[in-house]
Batch of 3 targets.
Target 1
Amino acid sequence: MKKKIDLKSPRPYENAPPAIPHLLIDIEISKTKNSCLKCHLADKSIRPSSSHFINEHTGEEKQDQVIGTRYNCLQCHLPNASIKTSLLSKAAKGSNNTCIQCHSVLLDKRLSNPVALWASSVHAEVGNTCDGCHGGDPKDPTGRAMSKEKNFQAAPANKKEVASFCGKCHQGLSDRYMTSAHWGKRAQSCISCHGSHTIKRASSEIVSVEKCGKCHDYDVAEKFITILQSLDDSIKTSEEQVKLITGFPTEHIEKEVDTIWKRFRQVRMVSHTSDFKLMKIETDKVDILLESANNEIDRLITLGKERSLTGYGLIATFLILALVTYFSNKRLE
């Protein structure tokens, strides 16, 4: 009795082999030409068992093609290969990244959801795709894309590995974090605060009672965020004040404010150590730079106002003289 096959199911029949994710374009090719074997025969670790090459009618075995009832790998392993490109996520459309294209249409939500979550993250915003964190080859449409030879790295196995995983790019932050109590107690990891695929830009919203209050009183975290938020607001205020300067070049003060932002990043970096003393040292450095910048901004704004008043005074004088001259001429006439 033939097995009943349901092409809408991740597995065509009970206890069937799992569907294997491959690039859709490669799947289309495989419908007419079995390109699967180009890779699966070359690599012993992914080579099909000998039973896949035996014709059940003649008993003949051929290594160059899949024949018999298993005339095509798609019959068992890729029942969902007919998924139309219209089902591709917004992130996958127009992308030539095989990780994004393939994972976005997988029926297993554990494998497809990360694409949607990544699409709204700061990583997507700045152009960092799956391979930026996980390695592999996003141009390879075969299973080799996730091979060790391609330096593929799966998700970190534990909290200890997360810091070094993220530290491939965020080395300074990772190094600082690994000196903190959070690291020492293995209580938290980078993704505990920042998330894994839903990573947002650094802001005060990352710190919350829900996250921090699980292990200790929130007032500790609140103290940290108050310091960071206060500095952030102060620098933004200075930026707005620069726009009020008139009649003078502002390039030098804009560079000074930019330097303050860079120094502020050091404060945020140090905050990952959970050390208030270090934060105080870095915060004081920002305050000194900010005070110097604000003094210059205030000076230029004041000079601009004085120049404007002087200009208005001169204009008023000229108008008065013009009126006096006009009426004098009228009287003489």
Note: Residues 205-333 form one domain.
Target 2
Amino acid sequence: MRHPAANITIFDVLQSADTFVNRLQAIKASIADIRWYPYNTISSLGFLSTLTEGINIPANAVLDLGAADGDISFLFADAGASVDAFENAPSNINKGDGLRRLNDAFGKPLSLTFTDLDFGVIFPRDFYDLCFATGIAYHLRNPLLVYLNLAQHCRFMITNTRVIDIPPSDSRVKRAYWRIASRLYRLQNRQNRETRFSRKPFAYLLDRREINDDPTNYWLFTPAGYRRMLKRCGWNILREVSVGSSIGTLNSDKRLWALCERVQNYADLKLHHDF
């Protein structure tokens, strides 16, 4: 691990990513008894580059919520950032052992906290340059509480969630209609285009195991719904990009990524001012 340096930017971190990824993979391969997180979180580096290109984002103090095995956290720590990583051990695929073991292997560069964000949390410091809140919004019972709390502590945020572009329905006719519409979008190469429903600020509360047989999934937002939630919680979206399926449904996974900066009057968020 490098010694902490002053004035680190996200550009500096991404510049060092290739060398770090090789080291990370080697260390994981040497720890054979851990069931690692099945999704390659380090693959999000391409999205990070797209979202942040041309924007000067400091990364001296970084907060990572839902760190999984900590790939992104360790990348930033290796570049010299001071990183606090949060994870919920009961819902983690290896109960947090992967994150702990990697922290030991890298020389304990991370401050680790295992907690459930839904029940309120006190962060180790008052200010972070940047936070990551990726892959957690649809798992949160209280997403507005979490995003409000983040806006009071973090200047920039990179976040994402799974979104839907068609309304959930028990009607076979409506489901058939939207299947046909989705195929037409694909045939027309209308990648990541939004439907009329996409532009409605809608949030759908999932039943248990309604998606991926996973009871930890709670909310699906339309793109407009996710944007509105971020705005109401004190965040301005600077840039966004959608990945995955062209049309988000209960059965097709589309993700909306956003780079956000908190509002200037973030200290007044508890006062219900206009943001």
Note: The chain has one domain: 10-271.
Target 3
Amino acid sequence: MRFLIVIVLAPLIAAAAHADDWPQWMGPNRDNVWRETGILDKFPLGGPKVVWRALIAGGYAGPAVAAGKVYVSDFATKAATQKEDRLARIRSDGAESFRAFDAATGEQLWAHSFPLTYAISYPAGPRCTPVVSGGKVYFLGAEGHLLCCDADGGAIVWRKELKEEYKTDSPLWGFSAHPLIEGQTLITLAGGDGSHVVALHKDTGKEIWRSQSQPETGYSPPSIITVNGVRQLIIWGPKALRGLDPGTGERLWTTPYAAGTSPIVMTPVRVGDYMFVGGPDNQNLLIKTPPGKAEAVEVVWKNKRERDDGLCPQTVQPFAEGNLIYGINGDGRMNAVEVPSGERLWESDVPLKEGVGFPRGTVFLVKNGDRFVLFNELGEIVLCKLTRAGYEEIDRAKVIEPTNRAFGRKVVWCMPAFANKRCYVRNDKELICVDLAK
């Protein structure tokens, strides 16, 4: 009987011990929820253990983790320092690389490097997290080089240069909208006339459809929602927020909204029957989400001032829970905002203590169980609870050095990946793996 119990329980134990992957921007479900259990409650004395370190070059692109491998991209240049001018294109000669590492050891398994000249603001490196799906990995570089590789051996399956194919230029701050897998297609922002967003066959790269025009490409990643059984592809551009049919690219609805001169980089957030999008400089918009085709879209409010109500995120994706949105304003303060009223319930400067008063403070938010795991631009992992009542910090530890510069200070602007009970994060010098197991 004891032997039989062991036989029966073994698969259950193995299933319980199975580690999750982080195969794309914002995780498996693209919702910034880390569903693994057995994660530490507080950090050990001296901070969590760094399991391995691997040398890489510059970039803002976060890693993706899938099937025992870590995928990341970088840009190596001979420039001694990065020039700071957020509104000017800066030429930088170097090589853009797409790499795969062993998730357990940090050993580099394969890489593809291409000589390239950047002509964008903040030319430190690529912006987009790779996407891993169906045995393939997809990389999008800062100048629009799109590469599909065999995820295991690294062989190139297909490649495209978006600027050349769609007769457009790179966005001022580089191609930054993380591509999305939808069924048999890879959906990405391309830019150009009638091709603001395009769908490519994920196995061949062949164009399935192209749709919409915008004066600029923009930076907000495409996303999918389902309303009353209708799947919608949500596309935010510098002049409008739109819902499209993901199978055809046909426009279902649109609402105009000018983003101004500052970039809106967040993915629109759905909160019940509403959808929120926002950026710096008092830019934000809350609409009633249309269930399908709609001639008019109900605007609930827009441009609530960040010092009063609403939320004006800069480079950080807000997190929706219940009827609340938690997010970081451009001033680096965390807020809780109620939907649909837009009322600000509280704000806190604790997540980014040293960054208070600086513009464009950055803190990435990920939910794990009943608490949140934050990663701030100081290179710290912060454990905390976020509730309607306020911000409650549990613990924090510095795990990596800020190596980039922005607004006169050192920063690390990179979204980590959480998988295998570990955190994978990079700066402009190294990719590290941090043990967060209980």
Note: The CA atoms of residues 69 and 102 lie 5 Å apart.
